[in-house]
Amino acid sequence: MSMQSATFQPMALTAPHRKALSHIPGDEGWPLVGRTLNILADPKGEVERMAAKYGHVYRSRVLGETSLTILGPEANELVLFDQVRLFSSTHGWGTILGRLFPRGLMLLDFDEHRLHRRALSVAFKSGPMKSYLAALDAGIAQRVAEWRQRPGEMLFYPAMKQLTLDLAATSFLGTAIGPEVEEITKAFVDMVAASIAPIRTPLPGTQMARGVKGRARIVAYFSEQIPIRRAKGGEDLFSQLCRATHEDGALLSPQDIVDHMSFLMMAAHDTLTSSLTSFVAALAANPQWQQKLRDEVSSLGVASDAPTSFEHLEAMPLTEMAFKEAMRLRPPVPSVPRRATRDFAFGGYDIPAGTLVGINPLFTHHMRDIWPDPDGFDPLRFTEEAQRSRHRFAFVPFGGGAHMCLGLHFAYMQAKCFARHFLQSVSVSLPSGRAPDWYMWPIPKPRDGLRVMVTPTA
Predict the structure, then answer these.
(1) Which tens digit of pLDDT belongs to each residue from 76-97?
(2) CA–CA separation, 180 vs 81, rounded Å?
(3) Is the peptide bond before 361 cis (omega within 30 degrees of 0)?
(4) pTM of the full predicted structure?
(5) What pairing do the DSSP bridges indicate for beta strands 65-70 and 57-62?
(6) Does the structure show a pLDDT above 70 at 120?
(7) Max Cα distance, the chain (Å)
(8) CB-based contacts of 70, cutoff 8 Å, min separation 6
(9) What is the average pLDDT score of the chain?
(10) What phi and psi, each to the nearest 5 degrees, are found at residue 389?
């Protein structure tokens, strides 16, 4: 089947009437707003309270629609593994991301998703990944060196956000992006901010209007660059996608490249900012673990100005475990929406087609029967032996099944590369031992920007 002639028509799914879900216990909250304000104020507490009162399958009303939340590893496996194509990601994420990041990989379903994922996977093979590592390594080393030169108190979250955005522009678009880089990165910042804006219509002066304008700029830039990249080549991710083909040898269409690049840049930037900030916050709050990871980095025997290799990253298992533990505590995507393609049953309840169904990694990652002392930081939860004893869907920061994050290995690579330079150059602590407070939804971030004390290492 030629991808150039194939047409994938999205299935039509209609939300069931609210009465069709009335047999499922729950609380839909106030008229109009439902329980949206509860979720915004305290997403972890809201889900835990609802689960304690109604069980691991409950009915709620958020963002204007009655929906179901199903909780625990078995629920994660049902929704994410989904070999029988029971849940649509297109109709789950569409209302949140569809206007600004249409037809990104996470928003595609079934055969179309499989074909596009296979085409995009070429950009994450060994050769391109080595090229990305070189660009990431240089950018991280330079920025951490700047932090070392300015010891004292700093707001870590905005600094990390700027760094991941700069790194995404370099490794994804290439070092030769040119003078447009500031304009392009600003467009992405506006798009990401608009994706979670409460006003969903691009009215003048709103964040959504700025996001729509940013997308228009991104579309224009990528569309102009595609023929240039196809002619000149390059090792950056954008150039890789410009040369990527489907199974029949057909190149990805220009529109597909634009949509995939927009989505990948957003995903690599925002979720990684959150995860690395959580990682640094955990190290600041747990100096004994910070020292253990610093000892691991020291054991590599790498000079501070030497480049990082894949062999170095493979020799940092404890760092990887600590990064996983940070994502357990604050998964970068705390909840995952899907829409049922047909009737199904779960937890003793019959659930009609069209129902918006959400799973909650944040809840699963804090279940006491799976994670003793769930709010504590303990990277040893992720030894090989400990992981074998748990349900395979008990830890899902990158999703699972067909929609498992395509950039998973890229994320671990960047996190360990960052940890190598950061731990080798500086130590970090919390001012007065004060624990930071966090917004946990839609993507975790510290309310105060994560105020930390940075000290150069000896």
Answers:
(1) 999 999 999 999 999 999 888 8
(2) 41
(3) no
(4) 0.93
(5) antiparallel
(6) yes
(7) 65
(8) 56, 57, 78, 79, 346, 347, 357, 358, 359
(9) 92
(10) -85, -5
